[in-house]
Each structure stands twice: as C-alpha cells, then as structure tokens.
Design goal:
The protein is of the alpha+beta class. The protein is built from six helices and seven strands, in the order E-E-E-E-E-E-E-H-H-H-H-H-H. The strands form two sheets. A four-stranded antiparallel sheet has the order 1-2-6-5, with no helix packed on it. It has a three-stranded antiparallel sheet with strand order 3-4-7, with no helix packed on it. The protein is flat, with a radius of gyration of 22 Å.
C-alpha cells in the first residue's frame, strides 16, 4: 500500500504534499489520490517533498491524528484494492519513520525495475486468468451458423482467435521471466548499464502485458458469445481490472524508451514509472 499519486497537480511528476521538520520529528500536510490499500493499512508510506524539493517516504500510522482516509475510489475496475483519498493535516511522523526517496534514482538501483515488474506480473496474471476462463466459456458457447460445425470448440475462426491469445499470453509470461532474470543479474552489483537493461526488459513486459491483458479480457467476452455479457457472470471484471491497472503507466512511452535504447543506445531514465 502506497500514497504516491496526486490528483490536483498539473503533471504526474509534481507533488504538493509537503513535509516539514520540527523539534521532535516531522509534520506532513497535503492530499493523496488512489492510495492503493490505504483503507486496510496500518501504516501508509507517503511520498512527500520538503521546501528544498527533496523527496522522502514517510511511513505514517493510519491512526495518526490529522490523517483522514476517504473511501471515494470510484474507478470501474480494481474495486477491491482498498484505494481512496488520504488527507494529511499537520500529521506528525517520527524521524525514524522518514527516509530519503530521491536518492533511489540519483544512483543506479533496482527500485524502479522492481516496482514495475510487480505491475507486469499483475497484468500477466489477469491475461492468463482471462485466457483460462475463455477456454471454459468456449466449451459452453454455441457454434456460429456459417462454421457448419456442431460445437463452438470446432469453429475454425474461434480456434484461430484463441490461438492468437494463447501465443500472446505465453509471450508475456516469457518476457516476465526474462525481466526477472535481468533484475536478479543486476542485484549483486548495480551499474548504469545493468540497471538500464533491467529497466528495458521490464518495460518490454509491461508494454506487452498491457496489450495482452486487454486483448485476452476482451476476447473472453467476444468468444463466449452473447451469454458472456450477462452481468451475473461478471466476465467484464477481467477487462475492467485490466483497463484500470494498465493506466498506471503509459505503455506508449515504454515503447519509445525501448526503441531509443536498441536503436540509439540511449539509457532510459531512472524512475519508478518505466
């Protein structure tokens, strides 16, 4: 669970939540949006900035005086993640619960790749689950009239579409494993080069799994037929969860950094969004 994002800034990089040092520790003021897991958390790691624009993570007790958790997440997906707005009004936090965060990117570290591979794993998992669900639904679906077959699992075009999804899901899984291996290889001795490679490999699976999760969850409903749209079955949850989660970071920019790396040997930026 993290409180990173802010809804009212001009860009995602801007942060208005402030931390100020006092005689006995620190005080936090501001507001965070889409704070994953905050409704269930005992402590809420919160990204803050001081007057010199240095970034910190403040691990704040969920019961701290002046902290308000609001159950206002209204996204059409990821409904059970315990997300919501968190407001901070002169919230005290002890010095031992505040650590520098910007230094995680000023030097080569695995903070970015490790954070992103977790998101890639979520999307790959959604894709795999939607694909497995699709197989079962095809078994129950009716064949299309022009196929001239008895069952949907004999329909050549249904088989074709399922095969495409199968290939994409497996490709995402392989890319995920390769990215994990790159992270493991960089861990003993991080350098600019091996951290860049890990970031690029993670970006590959994040970009691919974004498309795969959306495709697999959409094809599930398509190949299930009209009965796949019934609210009681809830098959739309795969697509809704995939669509909301894949908005976490723009895959189009991941492709840009991948291309710039392989074509021009330009290292990607070090941050938690690639």
């Amino acid at each position: 669970m993290l409180a990173l994002a802010e809804f009212k800034t001009k860009t995602a990089a801007q942060k208005h939540t402030q931390i100020s040092q006092t005689e006995h520790g620190y005080v936090v003021n501001g507001e965070k949006f889409y704070c994953t897991g905050s409704l269930f958390a005992h402590r809420i790691p919160t990204l803050v900035r001081d007057a010199e624009e240095r970034e910190y993570l403040a691990f704040i007790s969920a019961d701290a005086q002046g902290l308000q958790r609001i159950n206002d997440w209204s996204g059409f997906g990821q409904k059970t993640t315990g997300s919501g707005t968190v407001k901070f009004n002169q919230v005290f936090v002890e010095s031992e619960n505040v650590i520098r965060f910007d230094t995680a990117f000023s030097e080569p570290t695995l903070v970015g790749p490790f954070a992103q591979i977790m998101h890639a794993a979520i999307e790959t998992g959604i894709a795999r689950a939607a694909f497995e669900e699709t197989i079962g639904r095809i078994k129950k679906a009716r064949a299309w009239i022009d196929a001239n077959v008895e069952r949907a699992d004999q329909d050549p075009l249904t088989i074709f579409e399922l095969g495409r999804v199968a290939a994409d899901v497996r490709a995402s899984e392989v890319l995920l494993k390769q990215a994990a291996q790159s992270i493991d290889q960089a861990k003993p001795q991080p350098t600019e080069e091996n951290i860049a490679k890990a970031s690029i490999d993670v970006a590959k699976v994040r970009a691919h799994s974004t498309e795969t999760a959306l495709k697999a969850s959409s094809k599930l409903i398509e190949l299930a037929g009209s009965r796949g749209s019934q609210r009681a079955d809830g098959l739309d949850r795969y697509w809704r969860n995939a669509r909301v989660h894949t908005l976490h970071d723009a895959s189009r920019w991941k492709y840009f950094f991948i291309g710039n790396y392989v074509l021009n040997n330009i290292l990607p930026p070090r941050r938690g969004t690639l």
